[in-house]
Amino acid sequence: MAMSTVLTPIPGHVPEALVFDFDLYNPPGAATDYHGAFARLHDNGIPDIFWTPRNGGHWIATRGTHITEIFQDHSRFSSRMKSVPKEHNPKDPLRPITLDPPEHGKYRALIQPFFTVPAIRRLEPIIRNLAINLIDGLKPNGQCEFVADFAQHLPIGIFMGMVNLPESDRLPLLNLVDEIINPGERSKQEIFASLNEYVGEKVRSRRGGTGTDLITHVANSVIDGELISYTDAVSVCSLVLIGGLDTVASTLGFIAHFLATHPTHRQELAAKPQLIDAAINEFLRRFAVTNPGRVVTRDIDYHGVNMRAGDMVMLPTFLHGLDEREFDDPLSVKFDRAPKVNAAFGRGDHTCPGLTLAKLEIRVFLEEWLARIPIFSLKAGSDVGIRAGINGSFYRLSLAWPS
Ligand code: HEM
């Protein structure tokens, strides 16, 4: 995401005391410490909800209570637009993520059966075998580019299993995913258009089919008494693919980076795999990655803040877990922290349906990697590279270990 150098004029309903200049896609310091760069928004003097003139001008809610409340209030805060600047939002709804109830529920119900605990359990052997093969292949090299060589392969393997794709599709998908994580010449819109084209071909060929995979199920679903439209079916299937891509690859990147730079935590986890459950929750609290937004539906007074219909409110999910009013010493990673819900996977109607799957991917990574490569660190002389965006993510994370 390009840095926003343009300062949008402050609208009349925004008082000067609530203005703070903050570029969500390029916060100072984020290239090396993404979460630290956002955690500064909890410093004294910065309002809990403020207006920034960057990226078209928008509100940012920085505290867990407001983030949770806004996620759960679709009548005042709609999912119709999720990104800033507003022009970056897709023209056609991405189903179900940019729909509000009751429309939202009709499309969410189509994918829900594929995310139940038993359904995810069936995917576990695919994920585990893939992880083991990847790690066994990398281990003799003594080094790897973690996201490109490992993290981004897991979500692709899962999607392929979920929708029953042939092995020959792995490479084209991998190339598309790599482009999403490491954007080159093509814009995100162009990349998503290629992705829709790819998914569209599968939807078309599975219309009228009898398979039990997600694409066949969605492509032959009935909405309001009629066969789902081709465009809507593509939208739902593409979202399942996109939803689990850079979110998972980024989260694994932040966890791997933490373990590479915190040997005591790494040794403890390698020695006591029974801590892994607690560690997964703690990592998701400390290193949540996504930055979704909402659009205000009507003029409102929200906890003393005057918001106008059409204003965007961004909800950095990780600011909930980093809120010192909710979590003691929030920047520290403590495997014995008492479990408490936070907004890493959103809250309310849109709460991530992929959360059980995401946790399984993190578990498999921790179990299989630490069993095979218990000692690793950042590769000497190589800088890490983090890109802020709708999901903060590593584009460069070189790890090394004794081979
Ligand atoms: C660590 C990994 C993940 C994180 C942090 C994450 C985060 C989120 C968040 C915050 C939302 C809510 C967005 C909003 O309310 O605007 C969401 C929704 C969604 N996620 Fe995830 N996600 C992850 C993994 C996955 C996976 C693995 C999949 C599927 C394979 C997935 C599919 C979806 C879908 C389809 C939605 C839209 C749900 C709806 O609109 O009802 N996510 N995710």
Topology:
Elements: H1 34-39, E1 49-52, E2 58-61, H2 64-71, E3 77-78, H3 103-111, H4 117-138, E4 143-145, H5 146-151, H6 153-163, H7 170-181, H8 188-206, H9 214-219, E5 222-223, E6 226-227, H10 230-243, H11 246-261, H12 263-271, H13 276-286, E7 293-296, E8 300-302, E9 305-307, E10 312-314, H14 318-321, H15 355-372, E11 377-378, E12 385-387, E13 393-396, E14 398-400
Parallel strand pairs: 2-10
Antiparallel strand pairs: 1-2, 3-7, 4-14, 5-6, 7-10, 8-9, 11-14, 12-13
Structural description of this entry:
The chain is α+β, with helices and mostly antiparallel strands. It has a single domain, classed as Cytochrome p450 (Orthogonal Bundle), CATH 1.10.630.10. It is 42% helix and 10% strand. It contains 15 helices and 14 strands. The protein has helices spanning 34-39, 64-71, 103-111, 117-138, 146-151, 153-163, 170-181, 188-206, 214-219, 230-243, 246-261, 263-271, 276-286, 318-321, 355-372; strands at 49-52, 58-61, 77-78, 143-145, 222-223, 226-227, 293-296, 300-302, 305-307, 312-314, 377-378, 385-387, 393-396, 398-400. The strands form 5 sheets. A 5-stranded mixed sheet has the order 1-2-10-7-3. The chain has a 3-stranded antiparallel sheet with strand order 4-14-11. Strands 5-6 form a two-stranded antiparallel ribbon. A hairpin with a 2-residue loop joins strand 5 (222-223) and strand 6. Helix 13 crosses helix 15. The protein starts with 33 loop residues before the first helix and ends with a strand. The protein binds protoporphyrin IX containing FE. Protoporphyrin IX containing FE (HEM) is lined by residues 71, 79, 82, 96-97, 108, 239-240, 243-244, 247-248, 251, 288-290, 292, 317, 344-346, 350, 352-354, 357-358.
